[in-house]
Write a structure and sequence with these properties.
Helices cover 28% and strands 25% of the residues. The protein contains six helices and eleven strands. It has one domain: 3-Layer(aba) Sandwich (Rossmann fold). The two termini are 24 Å apart. It has 191 residues and is of the alpha/beta class. α1 packs across α6 and α3 packs across α4. The radius of gyration is 15 Å and the shape is globular. The strands form three sheets. A six-stranded mixed sheet has the order 3-1-6-7-11-10, sandwiched between helices.
């Protein structure tokens, strides 16, 4: 069974974690969800982001999401692709040197990588966006540009594909990012 590595952390966005985890599992992939300093069976807290009329999203406590693998045991050679979840987790997991190494290893191997919402913050910190076009939650657009990438505005339900990278701005784009990521992995998706 092909394996996907999912990088997440506390206060990962609930839908941007649970939906891709379940969708990719349904397609037959083993999804190894990991978080720095945690092991299989540990949980991360999720957050539910929504727009209720303020200038930015609100954040409510979501579910506990159970990790399925040990972060310290990750060997990128074992994985067909990488999925980076959104929410607040990317802002702090990008400070972990091994997280950045993992991202660089996937890019150097030209394996499929997906990043949603604030996930491109991890890509920017890893220095892999030079020459790529990507989208993200709009507040992350400057991070993409400063990292040498081209930020592309996209509808919240859309995904942007550039070579081995697929990105989406927020959880309404779960369907699009999962579909395009699966295509990059070689799955045949009929629409």
């Amino acid at each position: 069974m092909p394996k996907i590595l999912m990088l997440c952390g506390d206060f990962t966005e609930d839908y941007e974690t649970m939906v891709p985890f379940q969708a990719l599992s349904m397609l037959g992939y083993q999804v190894d969800a990991v978080c720095p300093d945690k092991k299989a069976g540990d949980t991360v807290a999720t957050a539910v982001h929504d727009f209720l009329g303020e200038q930015t999203y609100t954040e409510l406590r979501g579910h506990n999401f159970a990790l399925t693998a040990d972060f310290d045991a990750v060997d990128t050679a074992d994985y067909a692709g990488l999925f980076i979840t959104g929410g607040r987790a990317p802002e702090y997991i990008r400070l972990n040197a091994r997280v950045l190494e993992i991202v660089r290893e996937f890019f150097s191997s030209e394996k499929p990588v997906a990043a949603i919402c604030h996930g491109p913050q991890v890509l920017a910190a890893a220095g892999v966006l030079e020459g790529y076009t990507a989208t993200a939650y709009p507040a992350v657009g400057p991070d993409i540009t400063l990292a040498g990438g081209t930020y592309k505005e996209a509808g919240m339900d859309e995904a942007v594909v550039d070579r081995n990278l697929v990105t989406a701005p927020a959880w309404p784009g779960d369907t699009a990012i999962c579909r395009e990521f699966a295509r990059l992995l070689g799955a045949k998706i009929e629409i």
